[in-house]
Specification:
The protein is of the alpha/beta class and 481 residues long. 41% of the residues lie in helices and 14% in strands. Helix 1 packs parallel to helix 2 and helix 15 packs across helix 18. The structure holds uridine-5'-diphosphate (UDP) (2 copies).
Length: 481
């Protein structure tokens, strides 16, 4: 009889690991997973499975899952069915946060999925939002468990340190609450309460509970993969690696900035007429302000009007990716209604506004883009860093303010600390936006720093660079089982 390959015998044979990815939800979490999966799937020495929950929360997620499996037919799709989940327990909660919770409550079902896979799973890679459940399950099965952390190293240090911070306050008999207070992370620095993800201001919130549970458990992970690079966050990376944040912290592999997961043939074809790419092709070098606030940030109508007024007043060309709802499927608004009568007419030729999904990573690399007005979601920050495009950070919630500190320290751009998104009284006026955009567009020093950061980013991922070597090391660790 023909010899059976070790894989057919059901073993992840020495030297050929089988990696099972267990991602969570939201494009900000899925895209970095898909990018790492793409990078590893292009090698021929690793088997890959991806746990897939359908239907997804947003249309963009469904399309990107399909795109992943089409681009990498040898990557296995492992379907996963959530247990029924009663969302009415959390009225008004963000649908992505609810999906994380639904995943967490179904997490015990990951055990049989991991144990039953063939070839044998040698390592799991999961998301921070699922970590406190998935890490113990993987340990129980003697399978490595790595966390692909989708934010910055500074945020990881916060996540790991908050439980220690709370415990030491309790031990000292200090009153804690309603929020976690300012957090002084050893060797990283002080994160004032106003910069924390807002839910941490209330210890009873669902997100806060998830955050603390995950923070406690991650010290048991086998390693962390981060979409950052040594030159961008040297201080936080050193503090984590030296065990200064939490003693004995697992290895931290900074392997970013991540690349688009495919260099598809489509990308090389001339862009479709009327597409943002085609429009950028017609604009002068570094002349366009790219404006986008992530995949799940609804912006109020009032604030949208002010942004429009600001872009118009700046006198610059702009490409604005506009979202009016948290979930893309719900976005039925007409641009004309949102922006006010006459706006699109007045800016015709110099401004393009779209509600469609764009390939932001590619657009930022376009030579016509001169700056990025962003909420500083971490993927956006790393995409700007890779492109060497100055980012004007207008952080919104979640990890955005922590990310904005890295935008500044890492030379990616500037941060408007007093700009907020918190309701009508706090509208940032069109005048302010227009002035700041003009200022950043003409700031040669900011532009030069961003360009230098872009060069560092390219060096990090090039053969022999820090991120390149970190990825090699990670793969070596997978093979060591
Ligand atoms: N994105 C995109 N096209 C869009 C909207 C978003 O490519 O139309 C990508 C963006 O490039 C980034 C991710 O979606 O990679 C959003 O993640 P980020 O961390 O910037 O923000 P979040 O959406 O999680 O707040
Ligand atoms: N996060 C964490 N522990 C958790 C959940 C989230 O450390 O249990 C971090 C993670 O880095 C995430 C950030 O908190 O990126 C903010 O979460 P969210 O995805 O809501 O941010 P956004 O997508 O809006 O950027």
């Amino acid at each position: 009889p023909a010899m059976q390959s070790p894989a057919e015998l059901g073993g992840a044979s020495a030297g050929r690991p089988h990696l099972m990815f267990i991602p969570s939800a939201g494009m900000g979490h899925l895209l970095p997973f898909f990018r790492v999966i793409g990078a590893l799937a292009s090698r021929d020495d690793i088997d890959i499975s991806v746990v897939t929950v359908l239907p997804t929360v947003s249309a963009a997620e469904t399309e990107h899952f399909a795109g992943l499996f089409e681009a990498y037919p040898h990557v296995r799709r492992v379907d996963f069915h959530l247990l029924p989940f009663d969302a009415s327990e959390f009225p008004g909660a963000d649908p992505f946060l609810l999906r994380w919770e639904a995943l967490r409550r179904s997490a015990h079902l990951f055990g049989p999925l991991i144990a039953g896979a063939s070839p044998r799973v040698s390592a799991v890679v999961t998301d921070i939002t699922l970590s406190s459940h998935v890490i113990p399950i993987a340990k129980e099965l003697s399978v490595q468990c790595h966390v692909l952390f989708v934010s910055c190293a500074t945020m990881l240090s916060l996540c790991a340190y908050v439980p220690v911070h709370l415990d030491s306050k309790a031990a000292a008999g200090e009153e804690v609450g309603p929020g976690v207070g300012d957090v002084e992370i050893p060797d990283v620095g002080r994160i004032p309460e106003r910069c924390l993800p807002q839910p941490l201001l209330d210890l009873n919130k669902l997100f806060t509970k998830q955050f603390i549970d995950n923070g406690r458990e991650i010290v048991h992970a086998d390693s962390f993969l981060l979409n950052t690079f040594d030159a961008l966050e040297p201080v936080a990376l050193a503090a984590l690696r030296d065990g200064k944040v939490v003693p004995g912290f697992p290895p931290v592999y900074a392997i970013g900035p991540f690349n688009a997961h495919t260099s598809t043939a489509a990308a090389k074809q001339p862009p479709a007429a009327g597409s943002p790419e085609a429009w950028l092709d017609g604009q002068p070098e570094k002349s366009v302000v790219y404006v986008a606030f992530g995949n799940r940030n609804a912006v109020s109508r009032e604030q949208l009007r002010e942004i429009g007024a600001g872009l118009e007043a700046s006198g610059h060309r702009f490409l604005w990716v506009l979202k009016t709802t948290t979930v893309d499927r719900d976005d039925k608004a007409e641009l004309e209604d949102v922006l006010g009568e006459g706006f699109l007419e007045r800016v015709r030729g110099r401004g393009l506004v779209t509600k469609a999904w764009v390939d932001q990573e590619a657009l930022l690399k376009h030579q016509s883009v001169g700056m990025f007005l962003s909420h500083s979601g971490w993927n956006s920050v790393t995409e700007a860093a890779a492109a060497g495009v100055p980012l004007l950070a207008w952080p919104r919630g979640g990890d955005h303010r922590v990310n904005a500190t890295v935008v500044v320290s890492g030379g990616v751009g500037v941060w408007m600390e007093h700009w907020s998104w918190d309701g009508e009284d706090e509208l940032v006026t069109g005048e302010e936006i227009g002035d700041k955009v003009k200022e950043v567009m003409s700031d040669e020093a900011v532009r030069a720093r961003a360009a230098r950061t872009g060069e560092e980013a390219a060096k990090a991922v090039a053969e022999g660079g820090t991120s390149y070597r970190n990825l090699q090391e990670f793969v070596g660790k997978l093979k060591a089982t």
